[in-house]
Amino acid sequence: xxxxxxxxxxxxxxxxxxxxxxxxxxxxxxxxxxxxxxxxxxxxxxxxxxxxxxxxxxxxxxxxxxxxxxxxxxxxxxxxxxxxxxxxxxxxxxxxxxxxxxxxxxxxxxxxxxxxxxxxxxxxxxxxxxxxxxxxxxxxxxxxxxxxxxxxxxxxxxxxxxxxxxxxxxxxxxxxxxxxxxxxxxxxxxxxxxxxxxxxxxxxxxxxxxxxxxxxxxxxxxxxxxxxxxxxxxxxxxxxxxxxxxxxxxxxxxxxxxxxxxxxxxxxxxxxxxxxxxxxxxxxxxxxxxxxxxxxxxxxxxxxxx
Length: 306
Description:
The protein has 10 helices and 15 strands. It has 306 residues and is α/β, with parallel strands linked by helices.
């Protein structure tokens, strides 16, 4: 049986995602995303399930940053999980008495409207996870009055659901990914996604455009681009790219090769099946067959066989 690490403790959305992606796996709770990924790097876990992107908040900074540090890891699967937040408190707590709320920063961002309307005088304090917040609030001596998290966290830790579905959007979705050590990639399915990180070789006018051109001229559609600071000073960034297709596809392989040619460094994060099953539309001139035919034509030209 495989062992999968996740952002714990019990009752997080990460655990819920893990149960869907690998229901038979042994679960290893970790205090933060970095610890979950490090468990994979050290061989303590076979893979980790971590949040990567939220439809309201965007990329999860802690995950993005941890993926570019340390030994390389590969994304092998993804899941789109609907997110429903609840206000959780100890029995006997009334909403009007709630002054200190504990939750994960991402949950805080997604529930700002509810907090402003229903808890205008409350102070929100950051926790490592929504489940850790519920666990803390459940303690009789806790200085916090309530937690924001998944309803399942309340069930785990004996808290009452004071209010349900308190997120600002009913259609909020978090994208979770399964991450493992480098290994043979999942075979192309025809509805795949590839993720990479690219570092600019130098900062100059049009530098980002050069990177984007590598995708555009080969008909590769970007589904997400996000910059993150390298830590080497103001204005120094690297870029996360998610795009349609598999590295085994000619257009995708050539685009990544092009990035490698013009960038200071490229970290390949994986090619894996898209959770939504949407296949890309292949533009004229960018299919594998057309790339192969163009290569054969060039070979003939180089040999003088016109």
